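Lecture 7 notes: from sequence to structure.
We start with the chain below.
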Amino acid sequence: MLSNPSIHSKLPNVGTTIFTIMSSLANEHKAINLGQGFPDYPMNAELVELVNKAMKDGYNQYTHMCGLPALRERIAEKIGTLYTTKVDPETEITITPGGTYAIYTALTTILQPGDEVIVFEPAYDSYIPNIEINGGVPVLIPLVHPESRSDSYRIDWDLVRQKISPKTKLIMLNTPHNPTGAVLGAEDIKQLQQIVAGTGIFVLSDEVYEHLIFDNRKHESMLRYTDLYQRSFVCFSFGKVYDCTGWKMGYCVAPPALMKEFRKVHQFNAFSCSTPVQYALTEFLPRKESYLQLGAFLQKKRDHFLGLMKQTRFEPLPSYGSYFQLYSYAAISDENEKDFAIRVTKECGVAGIPVSAFYKNGHDNKVLRFCFSKKEATLEEAAMRLKKL
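Predicted structure tokens for the same chain:
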């Protein structure tokens, strides 16, 4: 008698993510959800109308596998303006259904079984599973935890040098960084250049928060540096820029030889992205103020939330980018991060994310991540509830 087939899991250690758990808890207890990264205010109405117009005008069928040519041209123009780098929209830019998809496709493109990938923790939760499902081996390096309120998480480049091996295929970067809000500086770029020079090591740079950067910091994109760009896949997200995370629209930029291989994988997966959205973005992207003013807009929200949280016993850790701020609760409780986050959701009605979820081994620093990309009233109510602790 034949038995039913069974699946040999490629991700045996992966279960329900903390984001799903915390969002479900937030819904169950009618809590304010500051856990997941999405705004609770309306996106730009003009962009919505442009999508509606594109649909009514009949742009509802597949478009080019690499993305609408006109949209890729607009992106190339933007890159040239921001980073003084000339990229060919025909051979170096591919539109993707979100930044996470672009990251997954880049990893699938270059990884062979046994290849090592340097990942800095805490890390966005998709990185390690995406590496492992492609047969790669994540080499985990912890970011240096801030020693004071004026300090931020940073990379220990000497430790990176120690971890480089003949099997190192890729270094993954994320700037501005999720979940810490840290950003790379000029010295980081110098160290990276020294480490990869003369090697076969690639760079995958997750830059989905490129415009969400504060305090007059400079976004150090791989696109600024010819030597780094020539070995890089650089991933971006329209969802983070235009408050439309549910549209799942992003893009990858890479030199022609790398992009050629990227497209080989892409064409057999999501070979076409939303056509009306691409037409709308093509028309909207030249409105530079929509992204150039984004940093100041979100810095104001960050600062407002910082001011409100002074009424609580939480201690902020610096955030120079993204729409997240980490807060230490060491003065409040000795509970582990997950238990504390669950209790705060149930008792105070505010959901955050335990930063231990961004470490493979669950490393616990008594820190929660809160998203401040919310209406002022939402942030004010959340801070008032957190005063109970």
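Points to note: The two ends are 60 Å apart (CA to CA). The chain is about 40% helix and 15% strand.
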